[in-house]
Write a structure and sequence with these properties.
The complex is a heterodimer of chains A (243) and B (307).
Chain A lengths: L2 E10 L2 E11 L4 E5 L6 H9 L6 E6 L2 E2 L5 H7 L1 E3 L12 H10 L8 H14 L15 H13 L5 E5 L7 H16 L3 E5 L3 H7 L2 E6 L2 E6 L1 H6 L1 H8 L1 H4 L2
Parallel strand pairs in A: 3-8, 3-9, 6-7, 7-8
Antiparallel strand pairs in A: 1-2, 1-4, 4-5, 9-10
Helix pairs in contact in A: 3-4, 3-5, 4-5
Chain B lengths: L2 H16 L8 H26 L7 H17 L4 H23 L5 H21 L3 E3 L2 H5 L3 H24 L1 H11 L1 H6 L4 H26 L2 E3 L7 H13 L5 H18 L5 H16 L3 H16 L1
Antiparallel strand pairs in B: 1-2
Helix pairs in contact in B: 2-7, 2-10, 2-11, 2-12, 3-4, 3-10, 4-10, 7-8, 7-10, 8-10, 11-12, 11-13, 12-13
Classes of the chains: A alpha/beta (243), B mainly alpha (307).
Chain lengths: 243, 307
Amino acid sequence: MLLEVRQLTKSFGGLLALSNVSFTVEKGDVVGLIGPNGSGKSTAFNIMAGTFPPTSGQVLLEGKDITGLPAHQVSARGIARSFQLVRPFLHLTALQNVMAGRMYGHEPVASTHQAKTEAMAILAFIGLAEKNQTKAGSLTVMERKWLELGRALATRPKLLLLDEFMAGLTPTEVNAAMSLIGEFKEQGITVIVVEHIVKAVMNLSNHVIVLNAGTKIAEGSPQEVSRDPHVIKAYLGERYAAH
Amino acid sequence: MKYGGWLIAGVLLAALLVTPQLPFSNNKILTILIQLFIVAAMASSWNILAGFAGQVNLGHAAFFGLGALTTRLMWLDGYPLALSFVAGGLVAALFALAIGFPALRLRGIYFAIGTLALAEALNETVSNILPGNSALPGPQLVSYELPSRYYLALGVVLVVVAVAYWLTQARLGLGMMSVRENEAAAQAIGINAFRHKLWAFIISAFLAGITGSAFAYFHVSYYYQHTFTPLWTFDAVLVTFVGGVGTVAGPILGAIFFVVIRDVLATNLTNFHQVIFGVLFILVVLILPGGFLELWDRLRVRMTNSK
């Protein structure tokens, strides 16, 4: 078991964003975390990434408690993330962006030379090798997403959290993104995807967790979850759930 | 840096090293160059925190003043110059460490205002405790000569530029620039943003401190308070922005331009250089955020494209 989330609860003032949510993630899994707007998936995501601590509950990575650690320490323990609105380092070159990930994070290298070599390999993997000297600010939105992924991969994560990575992509780009995430699986990187695009999640994941109004309403294989009456009700309303 | 850049830097350095020995060298030339070194070192040290780590410090004069005060008092008290010099940098760095913990919790404009307020408080305190003038006593006055001041100031600017260049190549500098670009994203790849800002603050303060030390060794007579006045900060800010913020060469280029304009105009129109630099600053911020260096890059791109 790579990640265990135990009875996670988060309230913002009087609003209960997440209530007693527990789940586990096995090594090599691609887990889809889905739910309608306001279901608490972003809150769960941010707690796992160390953006803010939970009100109560625990997050364990390989059995070690990482609850409430600041984001940079979570990264050092081996959890990397992408941002829903991409945040590459705009005034740095694509190479520097990835090098920064390689020299910090989990299993960093100290030598600039080695970081450069390995960062170039990552840029080649995400198809940006020829733009290594281009400032991130001059890349297209799509390329920036790829770059941010490369920067996250450069930290050598055990677990990669992708926050609405497919949002704003054309169908062709979604396919490219899905095949890339498929390759992570082969490299032994465990992935949790938070997505609005249910189709993408269903194709990609081997395990799906469904949140609604801050609680977990279903969990299982994509096929099981898509037949679950609670899920159908949450997404489509009462009328369709009867079947 | 390309070979051309190294070549220019090497030739320039060699010329600066031999300047005091040249037959046409005189005190006026040396004095202008010392002032140039001090302005360049102040700008470049300010740029390490503001340009690399993205934290705009409007209290930079405090570190210059602390360095100058420490060195002046120790040196005139009979301590060896080398010891007094290093102590100037260390006192400034320790002060940065102490105020960095609260001040760096502030962000953006609040950090700028906070540092300005701290520096002004120090400025007022010094003017109350040490209202007088610091003049060199007899023995130091008799043995006073400019070349040693020149070499110390040159040494300081070389150290500052070397540190700035090293940062552009080092992990620490990459971390600082990542924090400047996006703090949350930097944290997400394992960079401790606060620690990087604190390091930038300490390094920047130490370098401003030793610049103050060079000033204290150079000046025959000045009011203690003079080194704490906010003008030292604002000159550094203007020079850095006009030259190119966040670069190694920018603050140096800006300083050369600043001192040339100031000395050309000072003979005819006192302090008119401040008006010129004020206008230039506004123009740069509005149309050329990268300063002179960006202008140079744009021209170069245009020339290569037209070929």
